[in-house]
Amino acid sequence: MQQREGGNQLNVGIKPIGRLVGTPGGYLFEVFLLSRASSRPRRRAGGAMFSPRLSKSLLLLAMLSLILARVTRSAQGESVAPDSGSACAESNRVNSPNATKIVITVSGRKLHATLANNPTAHEFATQLPVRITMSDLFGREKAGPLPRAISVGGPHSKSYAIGDIGYWSPGHDLAIYYRQDGDSIPSPGIINVGCLDSGIEAFSVSGTLEVSIERD
């Protein structure tokens, strides 16, 4: 920053130089501002002085802030539905030679899924075929009530993976998780009854879905 003789005009030139810095809460963009002499600033209405280079630099910093906000959210554990497979399928948590296979029909697509091996999943299978109206919850899951309550004998969990099919016992709802937001499930948690093998992106849409589930 440099002041000319005979007045209060400031010639300011900003050259943004920065880097990504990892922190426990995400990523920060560390910016260094190097001042140097620039061309004569232009006058705006009201007498304020702004350098054209300064305006461009501020615009660039604003754009970087928007981009890095998304980077930080991703670093904190948020993810979106993949294009085909699901996280639970990749973990092989429900795969076994005798696992029960089901078909989920949604928006004209037939998706394959595998049921878990626990009392809750076994009783869920006795209700098939079933049609469920599933509403969007929290931008991460589609959920809707089953015709009747089922066993709560399966293991409860307060976490989930993308592609999980879970049973929420307080409302006897079936939920399918299409996005990971990093939040835990409230008590008593969900009981995993299965896992979508692929096509989880079919649930990553706004609004209500009519879903049919039957044995494969």
Strand order of the largest sheet: 7-8-14-12-13-10-9-15
**Cα-atom radius of gyration:** 27 Å
Q: Bin the strand percentage.
A: 35-45%
Low-confidence stretches: 1-17, 21-29, 31-48, 71-85
Categorize the overall geometry.
elongated
Which structural category fits the helices and strands? alpha+beta
Helix content: 10-25%
Largest sheet: 8 strands, antiparallel, barrel
Note the quaternary state here: single chain
Please count the beta strands (DSSP E, at least 2 residues each): 15
pLDDT averaged over residues: 75
Distance between the termini: 72 Å
| Succession of helices and strands | EEEEEEHHEEHEEEEEEE
Q: How many helices does DSSP assign?
A: 3
What are the defining features of this structure?
216 residues; alpha+beta; 8-stranded antiparallel β-barrel; two-stranded antiparallel ribbon; 3 helices; 17% helix; elongated; disordered N terminus
Polypeptide structure, described:
- The longest helix has 24 residues, at 52-75.
- β1 (2-3) and β2 (10-11) form a beta hairpin.
- The protein has helices at 52-75, 87-90, 119-126; strands at residues 2-3, 10-11, 13-23, 26-36, 42-43, 49-50, 101-106, 109-115, 130-137, 141-145, 156-157, 164-168, 173-177, 190-196, 209-215.
- An eight-stranded antiparallel beta barrel has the order 7-8-14-12-13-10-9-15. A two-stranded antiparallel sheet has the order 1-2.
- It has three helices and 15 strands.
- The chain is α+β, with helices and mostly antiparallel strands.
- The model is unreliable at 1-17, 21-29, 31-48 and 71-85 (pLDDT under 50).
